[in-house]
Amino acid sequence: MVYRWMYISRATTSEGSLDDVGIYLKSRGRNRDLCITGFLHRECDHYAQYIEGETESILRLRSLIMQDPRHTDLRILAQGVMTPRLFAGWEMAYASRGALGFSEFHRDLGRKRDLSVATLSETLCYMQMATADGQAVDVMRRFPDRRRM
Length: 149
Ligand SMILES: Cc1cc2nc3c(=O)[nH]c(=O)nc-3n(C[C@H](O)[C@H](O)[C@H](O)COP(=O)(O)O)c2cc1C
Known about the structure:
Helix content is 32%, strand content 25%. It is of the alpha+beta class. The protein has a single domain (2-139), classed as Alpha-Beta Plaits, CATH 3.30.70. The chain has a four-stranded antiparallel sheet with strand order 2-3-1-4, sandwiched between helices. A hairpin with a 2-residue loop joins strand 2 (37-43) and strand 3 (46-53). The longest helix is centred in the N-terminal third of the chain and has 16 residues, at 18-33. The protein starts with a strand and ends in an 18-residue tail after the last helix. The relative contact order is 0.22. Residues 134-149 have low confidence and may be disordered. Bound molecules: flavin mononucleotide. Flavin mononucleotide is lined by residues 23, 26-27, 30-31, 40, 47, 49, 51, 61, 64-65, 68, 70-71, 92. Flavin mononucleotide binds next to helix 1, strand 3 and helix 2.
């Protein structure tokens, strides 16, 4: 059984700062150890994150993330049991700077959307497009030891 948690929050750090980049660096090891997969996206001053894994691991990480001062104003989009994993193999996928962003992706679809007010389906749609094989892989950073978990 896989538990998922997804939210959008407002960053309190500047994009690309050590505090910001440190999140990605630290998350890799921990998520790998806990078999947590997902997607973390930052666009301007907002983060959108989807994490999935064993219920206990996700709930523990959720409480750490909720208390983290590097962001605030968390708006939860989804939580609960979900099968199967949507991001199997991704320790924490993310769209690198210069990659097709959330707003740009939706603009291409003829919609004017901003991550700060995005819905669950809009955000998931973006994340799934970005990790879909053969689509945006070249603009994504895929962790080297990609494997199914
Ligand atoms: C937007 C955001 C996303 C985060 N995502 C993760 C994550 O996926 N995995 C993780 O281990 N820590 C993540 N963190 C960091 C945790 O909140 C927390 O700082 C870290 O797990 C604590 O590690 P510690 O054992 O050094 O205290 C995130 C923090 C922020 C602000």
